[in-house]
Design brief:
- The structure is a single chain.
- The protein is α+β, with helices and mostly antiparallel strands and 236 residues long.
- It folds into two domains: 7-98, Ribosomal Protein L25, Chain P, CATH 2.40.240.10; 104-188, Ribosomal protein L25, C-terminal domain (RNA Polymerase Alpha Subunit, Chain A, domain 2, Beta Complex), CATH 2.170.120.20.
- It is 28% helix and 33% strand.
- The chain has five helices and 13 strands.
- Strand 5 and strand 6 (88-95) form a beta hairpin.
- Mean pLDDT is 86; it is low at 217-223.
Length: 236
């Protein structure tokens, strides 16, 4: 975990709909967890996205909540993204007890070069992008490096038990679970069949997109209102 102290300010959420909050440059959020009441908040979107991009979800944040004298130590528990634009649309912030272990997921960062890929023209397969762990909030790290240079042949496999973790972090995954491996290159016939399957899938996606665009605007507005209601119900 980074030793740099991260501060974030939060305002109490107004009665505006979630869409109106986002249009004003803020992100709807909810605070819950240890020794706090469930509280609906709004965060500065640019500041929060910068913190999340740089520190990830496993870095402790000192959350300065409007009206509270002391900051609340939180972890980013859950994030919702806009499926089209990709920006953050909602955040769950979990107030932690620094003396109690938490179960969370840490992203994997794949580094190095695999000889089985470079020399044997194989295909790298990564089965996981993050792993579940258990640790004290202060012992969490932002990512786990996985060196794929260990994959020299098609028989080599990096398993969960091969991950290098500090002694203070307990791995919650099956130790035998495959993290990364390299498969043999596909034959010409297999590639042709794959191209045909891909083309058919793309055509189906285009047809589905056309159907979505034909939906009336009232339906779209209704969808947004329903999403707002779901968020509000979650925050109560």
């Amino acid at each position: 975990m980074t030793t740099e102290k991260i501060n974030l300010s939060a305002l109490l959420r107004t009665k505006k709909k979630a869409k109106a909050i986002r249009n004003s440059g803020m992100i709807p959020a909810v605070l819950y967890g240890h020794d706090v009441e469930n509280t609906s908040l709004q965060l500065d979107s640019k500041k929060f996205e910068k913190i999340y991009d740089e520190a990830g979800g496993n870095t402790l944040i000192d959350l300065e909540v409007e009206g509270k004298k002391e900051p609340v130590r939180v972890l980013v528990q859950d994030i919702q993204f806009d499926p089209i634009v990709g920006n953050i649309t909602h955040a769950d912030l979990y107030a932690v007890n620094l003396k109690e272990k938490v179960v969370t997921e840490i992203p994997l960062k794949f580094t190095g070069e695999s000889a089985a890929v470079v020399d044997l023209e194989g295909n790298l397969v990564t089965n996981l992008t993050e792993v579940e762990v258990k640790a004290l909030p202060t012992d969490l790290i932002s990512e786990i490096e996985v060196d794929i240079s260990q994959l020299k042949t098609f028989d080599d496999v990096i398993r969960a038990s091969d991950l290098k973790l500090p002694d203070t972090i307990e791995l919650m995954e099956d130790p035998e679970r495959a993290i990364a491996l390299v498969t043999e290159p596909r034959s010409e016939e297999e590639m042709e069949a794959l191209d045909e399957d891909t083309s058919a899938a793309e055509e189906a996606a285009v047809e589905e997109l056309g159907k979505d665009k034909e939906q009336p605007e009232e339906g779209e507005e209704g969808g947004e209102e329903a999403a707002d209601e779901d968020e509000e119900a979650k925050e109560k």
